[in-house]
Design goal:
Elements: H1 3-15, E1 30-41, E2 44-55, E3 59-63, H2 70-77, E4 85-90, E5 94-95, H3 101-107, E6 109-112, H4 124-132, H5 138-143, H6 148-160, H7 176-189, E7 194-198, H8 206-219, E8 224-228, H9 232-239, E9 244-249, E10 252-258, H10 259-263, H11 266-273
Parallel strand pairs: 3-8, 3-9, 6-7, 7-8
Antiparallel strand pairs: 1-2, 1-4, 4-5, 9-10
Helix pairs in contact: 4-6, 4-7, 6-7, 8-9
The structure holds adenosine-5'-triphosphate (ATP) and magnesium ion.
Adenosine-5'-triphosphate is lined by residues 41, 46, 64, 66-72.
Length: 275
């Protein structure tokens, strides 16, 4: 077994039983450890000795003003941008800075960009089917027959993303919110250990935003989630008054605590919430 697979197996052993999202995740291991990373673009420090730990199964919201470095942090975790210094560990011993972008995805890090990228001419089911067989060409993937287990997994994900009645609908005809859920569903087909979601509810209606919060809460525990959002109503739904949020500012952590605590923090009000 390769080192990565061994680490994942160890993680699975440690985290089994943490499926419902209601059990505490602290003390069950570290899903992601970002240590002291810095990135400069033309001398401007987008990330400045950023340090952050995400627990296995944890749902962590990250907030902060425009330009704080939130997206750059995700770029570093997924291998799109290489930090100038620092370390990033996935689980206890996978050094993400030694892996390429596809290897990081393969190791179990899924990322949702702001704009949905679904295959518009295909239907919802086919989009999920393609995501399951990401290693094949579109035509080969759709010709290849699904195993009963794969079919079950697609049905399970369709239910999770509330699209079971839209399975045969052309993806291009879905609402903006439904496209976002489909893309999250496509990420879920690979069963990532860690999901990074950058402004997932931007452009959604209030009802879609609430449904997205329910979806993320149902994923907590089985997956670790890092959610970047400006919508404090949504962050409130996700944190339920008891989860920690992290405030980023000028490339490092400005504050960390319950949403109510950081909302009352003068430094945070000054740079972000008081605007
Ligand atoms: N590829 C790049 N080249 C040059 N500068 C960049 C690059 N990527 C990001 N930056 C700069 O780094 C800083 C951090 O940007 P980043 O996109 O990470 O912020 P953010 O916290 O995601 O902001 P927002 O809330 O607006 O999405 C910004 O000043 C941005 O202009
Ligand atoms: Mg951003």
């Amino acid at each position: 077994m390769q080192a990565g697979a061994r680490a994942m197996a160890a993680h699975r052993a440690r985290t089994s039983g943490a499926g419902s999202g209601t059990e505490p995740y602290f003390g069950q291991g570290v899903a992601l450890y970002v240590q002291d990373i810095s990135v400069a673009f033309d001398g401007f420090k987008a990330l400045n000795a950023l340090t952050l730990t995400i627990g296995v199964g944890e749902l962590r919201c990250i907030i902060g003003p425009n330009g704080a470095g939130k997206t750059t942090m995700m770029d570093c975790i997924t291998g799109k941008t290489r930090p100038d210094s620092g370390r990033i560990y996935f689980g206890s011993n996978i050094d993400l800075l030694r892996l390429t972008e596809p290897e990081i995805a393969q190791a179990g890090v899924g990322r949702k960009f702001q704009k949905p990228t679904v295959y518009e001419p295909l239907d919802v089911f086919e989009n999920l089917e393609l995501a399951l067989k990401a290693d094949r060409s579109v035509r080969a993937a759709l010709r290849h027959r699904l195993t009963p287990a794969q079919r079950d997994r697609i049905d399970e994900v369709l239910a999770l993303i509330h699209l079971q009645h839209e399975a045969q609908r052309t993806a291009g005809l879905l609402s903006h919110g439904q496209k976002q859920w489909l893309e999250i569903g496509m990420l879920l087909m690979q069963d990532p250990k860690l999901l990074l979601l950058d402004e997932p509810v931007a452009g959604m209606t209030d009802e879609e935003t609430e449904r997205t919060a329910e979806l993320f809460l149902s994923l907590e525990g089985r997956h670790s989630l890092v959610v970047v959002e400006h919508d404090m109503g949504f962050v409130g739904l996700l944190t339920q008054g008891r989860k920690k949020v992290t405030v980023l500012h000028e490339g490092s952590v400005l504050a960390e605590g319950l949403l109510s605590e950081v909302q009352a923090d003068e430094k945070v009000v000054e740079v972000y919430l008081g605007r």
